[in-house]
UniProtKB/TrEMBL annotation:
InterPro entries: Homeodomain-like_sf (IPR009057), HTH-type_TetR-like_transc_reg (IPR050109), HTH_TetR (IPR001647). PROSITE patterns: HTH_TETR_2. Keywords: DNA-binding, Transcription, Transcription regulation. Transmembrane segments: none annotated. PANTHER family: HTH-TYPE TRANSCRIPTIONAL REGULATOR BETI (PTHR30055:SF234), HTH-TYPE TRANSCRIPTIONAL REGULATOR RUTR (PTHR30055). Residues 44-63 bind DNA. The lineage of its organism: Bacteria, Bacillati, Actinomycetota, Actinomycetes, Micromonosporales. Pfam families: TetR_N (PF00440). This is HTH tetR-type domain-containing protein. It comes from the Bacteria.
Length: 198
């Protein structure tokens, strides 16, 4: 009898833990979805709770404060971005395909973040994001960069950063209205020209 009650209690605690994790995930996803629709400063706890199908009190129980919630959402988004940008190093065409797919999914959101970088919390994300993009460029094109020992590596990396930046995607995709395939082809042409000239 005691053994059965212990098993039942462990099962109940496990189920409760899973339910809490699912609620936390719904809350974070609600913040991320809302941040794609409006400025972060405009997002209220009431909106987050409503979209997550829970109460403001539950949101605060999970994250403590609105700031704690936003910090956790930023950490989650950063982890998702790192995964989305994963590509085989040394394959420029694959790298451009991955980065354009990433921008198709998050480009408008990233541009919205960049427009808010005066906010210290957003600036804390955007600043490291720029460094991560440069590191991504160096990793993706390391083989091509190493094959040009006499070239100015920093200059080549600067040019590759510009050619693969979200603003390059915006100019082609949003401002020019090109489709994703044409955008990918133009960005690949830029990268190819930079690598050939280097």
């Amino acid at each position: 009898m005691c053994h059965r009650m212990g098993k039942q209690r462990a099962y109940t605690l496990g189920a409760r833990g899973e339910a809490m994790a699912a609620t936390r995930e719904r809350i974070l996803r609600s913040v991320l979805d809302l941040s794609e629709e409006k400025m972060t400063i405009e997002i209220t706890l009431d909106e987050v709770a409503s979209r997550a199908g829970t109460s403001v009190q539950t949101v605060l129980r999970h994250f403590g404060t609105r700031e704690g919630l936003l910090d956790a959402a930023v950490a989650k988004a950063s982890a998702e971005v790192a995964e989305e940008r994963r590509a085989p190093a040394g394959d420029p065409e694959a790298a451009i395909g991955v980065i354009v797919a990433h921008y198709e999914r998050r480009g408008d959101f990233v541009l919205r973040l960049l427009s808010q970088e005066h906010d210290p919390r957003i600036g804390a994300v955007v600043g490291p994001g720029k460094l991560l993009h440069r590191a991504w460029v160096e990793e993706m094109f390391q083989r091509q960069l190493d094959a040009r020992p006499g070239a100015d590596r920093d200059a080549l990396v600067d040019l590759l950063v510009v050619a693969t930046d979200v603003y390059a995607w915006k100019l082609l995709r949003r401002d020019r209205g090109l489709d994703p395939d044409t955008t990918r082809a133009r960005m690949f042409a830029l990268v190819s020209a930079i690598l050939a000239a280097g």
